[in-house]
Amino acid sequence: MKTLEDVRALDAADPLRSFRDRFDLPEGVIYLDGNSLGARPKTAAARMADVVEREWGQDLIRSWNTNHWMDMPRRLGGKVAPLIGAKPEEVVVADSTSINIFKALSTCIQLQPERSVILSETGNFPTNVYMMQGLAAASGGRVEHRLVATEDLVDALDETVAALLITQAHYKTGYLHDMQAITRAAQDKGVLVIWDLCHSAGALPIDLNACNADFAVGCGYKYLNGGPGAPAFIFVAERHQDRVMPVLSGWLGHARPFDFSDIYEPAPGIDRFRCSSPSILAMASLECGLDIFADTQMTHIRTKSVALCDLFIEQVEARLDGHGFTLASPRDATIRGSQVSFTHEHGYPIVQALIDRGVIGDYRDPGIMRFGFTPLYVSHEDVWQAVEILQDIMTTQAWDKPHFHARAAVT
């Protein structure tokens, strides 16, 4: 088992160690929840203030042109693209993850009119499943949504399935699907694949084009550090873009929105997948998070992510043996994202006790304690200290207090 000296040596040799200074992290807090909400880049406050005070306050509506507000969805899409192995013209930042999932699903139904099933795995993130159910309900029987166990996904692919919607890194366990193998298996059966990258974009290398992916969506507020409710992104492979009429045919997806025509004419390429007016303040914040990645290499991020997660597993299992923790994430790092989950029958109050002591993770039923490791600002010593505090909480039974058992609205 690694010692504290070993851990400090790892931090001293870390090529990403200087990136921690680019984030505002409260003193005394070990933040292990970047898989839910990323920390704030230090540049974000000044950037948003400039948008509010100068661009909005002084330039007013002229900012759509003079400060390039109208171009932000494509500009930010171009900054997401290298993180997910896409061309800049295949990604646009717009709307929310849920809306972009609906766009992708409805596009697949158009592209595969002879097929009626949209498929996903049981236990997928709820918004994905709910969007499938909503689309099926709105179709009047044309579309059927179907869920199968993870191990049955490939066998469920047949000539009735139009689209497979799958999350690369599972939100509860961090289980990492093999993007290349699943995409190939689906496309061999004529099935289009939509990848949800919410828990993987910015945390590990992704190469959508190398996998011949069809569609992908992701949010901006987890590992991309764009702020609460940051805009999402959608990837549409170039070969599909001009073949569909968007179901959500919003004004800004029109070829010439300022013609104010009564007839919708979709814009060429990825722009037709824009719908609503861009949220300028939120996009400004997200751009601060994306700009940090220009100075990094995803291989460095992934290498450190694996080391942090492995260290956490090692320390918890060695120092808390007999305290009722069971690893819920894959032990094999090649099939694990940038988070580690343990189950415990008292998981919720234990997480609350940790938060009270400055170690921030989160909880998901049933009994899952989630810890996300963002390599840009989490150190190896953070991991060591977090387990030290967890060990103390368990040894002293500090978690077993009434206020730690009281459920909050957000867990």
Characterize the structure shown.
The chain has twelve helices and 15 strands. With 411 residues, it is α/β, with parallel strands linked by helices. It has two domains: 4-31 and 297-399, Aspartate Aminotransferase, domain 1, CATH 3.90.1150; 47-295, Type I PLP-dependent aspartate aminotransferase-like (Major domain) (Aspartate Aminotransferase, domain 2), CATH 3.40.640.10. Strands 4-10-9-8-7-5-6 form a seven-stranded mixed sheet, sandwiched between helices. Strands 11-12-15-14 form a four-stranded antiparallel sheet. Strands 1-3 form a two-stranded antiparallel ribbon. A hairpin with a 3-residue loop joins strand 14 (362-364) and strand 15 (368-372). Helix 2 (42-56) runs antiparallel to helix 8 (280-292) and helix 4 runs parallel beside helix 8. The protein is globular. The two termini are 32 Å apart. The mean pLDDT is 97.
CATH topology of the largest domain: Aspartate Aminotransferase, domain 2
What's the average pLDDT? 97
Q: How much helical structure, as a percent, in the residues?
A: 25-40%
Q: What's the tally of helices?
A: 12
Topology order in helix (H) and strand (E) letters? HEEEHHHEHEHEEHEEEHHEEHEEEHH
Low-confidence stretches: none
Write a brief structural summary:
It contains twelve helices and 15 strands. With 411 residues, it is of the alpha/beta class.
Which descriptors would you attach to this protein?
2 domains, alpha/beta, 15 strands, four-stranded antiparallel beta sheet, 12 helices, Aspartate Aminotransferase, domain 2, Aspartate Aminotransferase, domain 1, about 15% strand, about 400 residues
